[in-house]
């Protein structure tokens, strides 16, 4: 099964199915539908998350962090992700690089550089992915509009704009896991409860929405963490954080995927 196409089909129904966490990794770099009848452009309007954008000059939701995540399926390590989030002037920059070997498949490399405002609104995103083929792309965010471009090695890049009803859009790209740590920072911990966020998967040029809910302290492995449940009608992901809301672990129970900080 082409996992990218599978994810795009589920998102078209408004449900986010994370390609990166289905227990299999994509076998081909590119956007949804690129290996079949071609990309079908769409727009997707979504309501704003409960946590409204913060006014200019408000304290940042981010703090510097750096480390490595171990990626495992059924307890077997298949790869790792090096990540860092740091401040440059008024902009925060999150960088991730993943190297993995898909079970029964080939090697996978993916990189993402996400620039964010202090309140968590994305400003610009660059990505690259390599399996059997190479692909790269950019997203420019202006207000609630995401201007996407993807270079798949064809004559001209593929382009598409998506219009959201909020500047706070969660970027959750294929095989880049620390972006869930960014989402955990954007979640309004003071308000709590279930909050809904619009989502963009840049490699697939696919939008969607998710709900995020704090569950309090829960056991994960040998430790207790603050737990966030990230869910759509098709998938549930558990994100575990320390007392400073740094992502320490992520579990996808349905596919036995675990991503854990080393």
Quick summary:
The chain has 262 residues and is mainly beta. The chain has helices spanning 3-11, 179-186, and strands spanning 65-73, 76-88, 91-101, 107-116, 122-130, 134-142, 145-151, 158-163, 170-171, 194-201, 206-220, 223-232, 235-241, 247-252, 257-261. Strands 8-7-6-5-4-3-2-1-15-14-13-12-11-10-9 form a 15-stranded mixed beta sheet, with helices on one face.
What does this structure look like?
The structure is a single chain. The protein has 262 residues and is mainly β. The chain has one domain. Helix content is 6%, strand content 48%. It contains two helices and 15 strands. It has a 15-stranded mixed β-sheet with strand order 8-7-6-5-4-3-2-1-15-14-13-12-11-10-9, covered by helices on one side. Strand 13 and strand 14 form a beta hairpin. 43% of the residues are buried.
């Amino acid at each position: 099964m082409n996992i990218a196409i599978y994810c795009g089909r589920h998102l078209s129904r408004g449900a986010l199915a994370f390609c990166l966490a289905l227990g299999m990794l994509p076998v081909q770099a590119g956007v949804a539908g690129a290996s079949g009848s071609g990309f079908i452009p769409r727009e997707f309007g979504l309501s704003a998350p409960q946590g409204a954008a913060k006014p200019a000059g408000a304290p940042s939701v981010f703090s510097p962090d750096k480390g490595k995540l171990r990626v495992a399926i059924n307890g077997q390590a298949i790869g790792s992700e090096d990540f860092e989030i740091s401040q440059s002037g008024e902009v925060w920059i999150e960088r991730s690089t993943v190297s993995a070997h898909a079970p029964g498949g080939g090697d996978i490399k993916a990189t993402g550089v996400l620039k964010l405002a202090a309140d968590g609104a994305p400003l610009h995103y660059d990505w690259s992915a390599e399996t059997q083929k190479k692909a790269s792309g950019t997203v420019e965010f202006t207000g609630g509009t995401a201007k996407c471009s993807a270079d798949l090695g064809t004559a001209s890049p593929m382009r598409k704009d998506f219009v959201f009803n909020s500047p706070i859009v969660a970027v959750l790209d294929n095989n880049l896991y620390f972006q869930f740590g960014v989402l955990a920072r954007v979640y309004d911990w003071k308000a709590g409860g279930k909050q809904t966020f619009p989502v963009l998967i840049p490699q697939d040029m696919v939008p969607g929405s998710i709900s995020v809910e704090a569950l309090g302290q829960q056991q994960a492995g040998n430790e207790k963490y603050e737990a966030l449940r990230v869910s759509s009608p098709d998938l549930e992901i558990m994100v575990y954080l320390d007392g400073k809301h740094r992502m320490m672990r992520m579990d996808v129970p349905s596919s036995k995927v675990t991503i854990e900080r080393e």
